[in-house]
Model the fold of this input.
Amino acid sequence: MNLTKKDLTTLQFVIIILLLGLGTKVFMIPLLLLKSSGRSSVFTMLIFFAIELFIIAVFLLSQKISKNKTAHEIIECTAGKVTSKIVSFIFIFYAVFKIILFVTILKNYLFTNFFDGFVWAIYLLPLIIVLACFGFRSLTSIGRMGEIFAPFILISIILVAALIAPNARLYSVLPLTESSGEALFNVRSLPMWFGDYILLFVMMGRIKVSNKRFKTKVIASVIIAEIVAIAFAVMIFSAFIDVAPFLDLGQKISAITQLSLMRVAGGRVDVLLFAVWMIAIIITAGLYFYGASFNTDKMLGMKKGNPFTTIALVVIIYILSVFVFMNETRLFVFLTGFMGIFALIVQIGLPIFTLICSIIHKKKYPNTSESVNEESENAGDAALGVSNEIKSEKGGQVANEKT
Amino acid sequence: MNIGTFFTQYKCVSEEKEKSHDKRVDEIKENFATSEVLVEREFLIGEKKGTLLIHPELTDSVAIRQMMVAFAKCEGAENEKELIEKTIPITECSVVETINEAIEMIMMGDVAIIIGGFRGIIIANAKTWQQRGVGEPPVETVLSGPREGFTEDIRTNLTLIMRKLKTPKLAVERFKVGKMSNSNMAVVYLKGVANDKVAKQVKEKLEKINTDGVLDASCFEPFLDERPYSIFKQVGKSEKPDIVVSKLLEGRVAVVMDGSPVVLTVPYLFVEDFSSPQDHYERPAYATFIRFIRFFAMFLALFVPAFYVSIQVFNYDVVPLRLLVPLMNATRGTPLPVMVEVVLVILFFEMIRECMLRTPVAIGFALGLVGVIVMSETAVNAGILSVPPILVVALSSLGLFMVPGHVNSMSILRVLFTIGAGILGIYGLILMSVFLVHYLVSIESYGSPYLAPFAPFIAKDQKDALLKEPYTHFKERPYSIKQDNKIRQK
Done:
């Protein structure tokens, strides 16, 4: 039995879910949907919400069936090394374009709000270096980072919502069915902007499942993230639906927020708040980079954290971002065209495939899927990796907590 | 055998024993670069010839006189043990077999007693040298609470610890480090509390040291560091016995070094230096309040200069209009770019700080006044510098010194952040913050995450992190640190 090291605590995992669900969607999606499907954007969001819930449900089921095995190990044991390498490649391909998407979103935001006429090829370099660090370090580090930044990101979201809310007129969202055709079309073309929960499969088998409340916590966090994302989107729709044609694909929302509230004299606080949101984008991109790097090492049979694979990925992303997809329209067409369908297949197909492999694996090796570490929750010990004895206050009974 | 033969044989044996005695004395003296370093006093115990070898700068002359008197009264002894028990008036005595051991002990300040006919060399503890008294350390001052501080003598330091931890479970394992310095060190921990693995790791690191000399705990620190090149410290330091004892009670391991008043403790967490010795003797509410202030101060120290540069260069629209106008007026006409200006002011502050540390107190104070007031005022009046950067850097420096343990690392970081913000604005600030946090969360100090109990978030340890709860709530030892026994109080 191959017991994988538990890299993430339950809390860290839940925070990652919140970051994936909230951090990027809240600021990235609303304007995009507003321009493409107007008032019916809510339907698009609900459909993708359902897809993401599906991904989570499949993940939880796969995790339950094969608690101590990673997705890669399950697929390799069940479908063979070649198949696992193909699956790794598919994930890497998906992850690389996700990272390029995030990088482009950041570029748009910076171009609109901070820098006037700058050479992105140079300004991308420090970002790429930061992303590379995610490839060199462990999942534990990323989980801990999430714990540090999550409160700030959540506060920034709340404060931006507070800035926008006074201008929201909920009645202007109606009628919802105004552009239902476009809403349905977006399901085919916009998957690249959704489906971040697919990253959780990289973490499968590496989470310390503390107790029976793990599933409840995960589902609750997903639902909260999705509801907040939709609510935020509806608020933005209601505030800016009338000016949608004048908005670019980007973060002009920031300037509009400020101007619409006539808050120029008060200073552009929203810039600071969106700057904190940038951290969510960087962490999510970093997670994808980690996933890509992890899978590249597995695909090539290399030890995790190999610097050459990280550097190779960095170079590929840089070249694609700067030379191939420098033109945003070209990128948008690619992401909504071929990549849209590809992403949909990955977001639905990969979880199903992993689940099937988990079920087959359990049938083939019934004893190896048993849980070894069903301990009571003791926050923080998972990361310490040490066995602590706690003498309970009643009768000196010793409870062994393996962490 | 006739009487003549017997006396001849006795004389030969006696001569042999005397030669052995003289030979050992000469052998010891030859090992010293200058034989005048050693003082030898000869005496007779019965028929046996004896020699005392001492290092006069390290040995107590009163003890030597007492020993000479005792030897003069002694009629004889059969062996070393009898001499020690019946004659030598010093409690701490031992016997060594080799010349090298004897030399080592002489260099420690002990007396070597060589008796003709005795195989071993008797070592008596007669150490004495001038040392500083136990007083309050200059850095960790308190308004209330004990004012004892460690000194340069390891025995005094161990005594100060043992007086506060009167338990047989206090393990003190001694080592000698440095081929030339032969520095005495002790690894101190509470058996059954501290994790054995951590104690073992520390001991192994000590044993691996192969150097000429280690003169101070700070020189020894890199041997304990997991990342010697990191700008962040990974080993705790304290000059106060009560602080070290509280860390030992939490399950840490301490390293005491002869010649240094600083005691090192591991594992070390980033949050440790945000609490001061005074916190332990204050009301919890105030201690919590002041910790929040320290965290905020550290945040200001790091980000204020960088943020100022960023908004001046890239994002002036972030600033409210009422503040923007005076800011623009104050900075109008200055020749230097904002980033260069702020970095220069930071460097001036660092130079003044260094000057004040290196010069005598009287001059240092005057120098500080000259540097800070005169230079800044004249520079501003001359139009070379503007007021806001000076204000910003002064505020940052104030924040920096609220957490003395992190001054060095934060001083470097604030310069880097300022340069990053000057080139890339808030984008650069964000990237550097992400990089910094990512780096910090990846550090582990002897198995304890560096940013614990914040990352990983350990709810039970929050009572002594940002918050300071009353001691009645500290039922368990910190989960951030590996220990063998979690229960602290019931």
User: Anything to note?
Assistant: Chain A touches chain B through 54 residues (CB under 8 Å).
